[in-house]
Amino acid sequence: MIAFVDGVLVQAGREAVIAVGEGAVGLDVALSLRGAEHLPAVGERVRLWTHLSVREDAWTLYGFPSLEERAMFRLLVTVSGIGPKVALGMLSGADASTIARYLRTGDEKSLVGLPGIGKKSAARLVVELGQRVPGELAGGDQDAESALPSGSQGAALDILQAMGVPAMQGETLLHQARKARPEVADDVEAWVRAALAGLGAPGR
Questions:
Q1: What is the pLDDT of residues 49-74, one digit of tens each?
Q2: What span, in angstroms and rounded, lies between the C-alpha atoms of 160 and 20?
Q3: Which CATH fold topology does 4-64 show?
Q4: With a threshold of 0.70, does the pTM exceed it?
Q5: How far is CA 150 from the centre of its chain?
Q6: pLDDT(130) > 70
């Protein structure tokens, strides 16, 4: 509905105020901590990409310094239990590409380190978004290598791919195997066997 706002910064911080229309209208815009740090000095012009959240009791305009941050915010709020405030908190703790990397590699430990995220939320985020994160959010082609699983998970994924299992499906199977039996992640071969067992489970 409102793609962006472009105007003069009247009040800085996470609850910014931007004057638009030659100062005729002032808009309250909620930002992440990182987004607020990107604001210029009061009195200077600023453009923020926005997302309008409409509820029965409030209309809230969220602002983002980049399209990538807004895209990650919109992705996060599709997960049950992750509302706008939690998503904004996550983006205060890490930038969009870092969160994308956590999701794609199933790094629940790092997700738990973000504001407002517990173990159950982290697991839900990985399961629901791990395969939906666009490559460009994880760094695009330039940083594709860093967006992929590394270490034992990377080795296990390489084996699965060599056996004909698609990368995204392999990541999901490895995550599910580790979730069911955390100890398998200490042994690449055992992890691969557990993942393959999941591939042959009923309903797959």
A1: 999 998 888 899 999 999 999 999 99
A2: 54
A3: OB fold (Dihydrolipoamide Acetyltransferase, E2P) (2.40.50)
A4: no
A5: 19
A6: yes
